[in-house]
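Appendix C. Worked example: Amino acid ABC transporter ATP-binding protein (PAAT family)
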Amino acid sequence: MPPKIATDLVLSAQDIHKSFGAQEVLKGITLGARNHDVISILGTSGSGKSTFLRCLNCLEVPNSGSVAVHGEEIVFRNGRIGDQRQIERLRRHLGMVFQQFNLWTHRTVLENVMEGPVQVKRMPKAEARDLAEGLLARVGLADRMGHYPAMLSGGQQQRVAIARALAMEPDVILFDEPTSALDPELVGEVLKVMQDLAAEGRTMIVVTHEMAFARDVSTEVVFLNEGRIAEQGPPEKLFDHPETEVFARFISKTR
Ligand code: ADP
Ligand code: MG
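Step 2, the predicted output written as structure tokens:
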């Protein structure tokens, strides 16, 4: 068994570096999430937010640094991972919701949500169906279970994607700009679901441009700038007393 490090962090990243070719996108990011934390990650386009989120679940392999879930640490050296099975274990603890929903277009809404529990967790179909129906009802889609994704609005599709992530019972849910692809009138219904999840005590890391969500829902805000954390702290502190010029400029533009 890999070594367990003593920690109260559900998910943590230590000194993550990631380059694409000669471009160093992440220049040493360290971040930890405790149970029930809702961490909003802010930053201008190209600052490395998606890359960081993808490093957390190893969709991108960092050049160096480490990621730990429940104290099981995965160390990256020279952009490689020692043990592929560690990644599979890591991913079982993490859910991900993408900007573009990434639903299976040839499967119904219900099938999209059942797929993970049946295929990955080997859950019996009847049980997976009950689970999926319950989750879809919770995100307000009880009457859409037999529809195909293309028949739904963007907001509905994103709520399916959230139900699909929840079906795997993740310890932490990672969101990458979940409302950025939506028409403005559909943003609220998705934010409402995310707010409910936060109120339930779900641990979430959310890359977002929704300043009201960052300020009112998150427990911690992180501002990424040029591959580094430029500011970090409770939202009221950051928004009311930005310490860096670059973050002050960022929030003044988004008001
Ligand atoms: P953000 O999500 O903050 O907008 P990204 O993490 O997507 O930023 O991208 C950060 C930088 O890394 C950008 O310059 C982007 O072009 C580059 N980048 C991201 N993914 C790749 C990739 N797969 N190959 C090459 N460059 C990439
Ligand atoms: Mg991005």
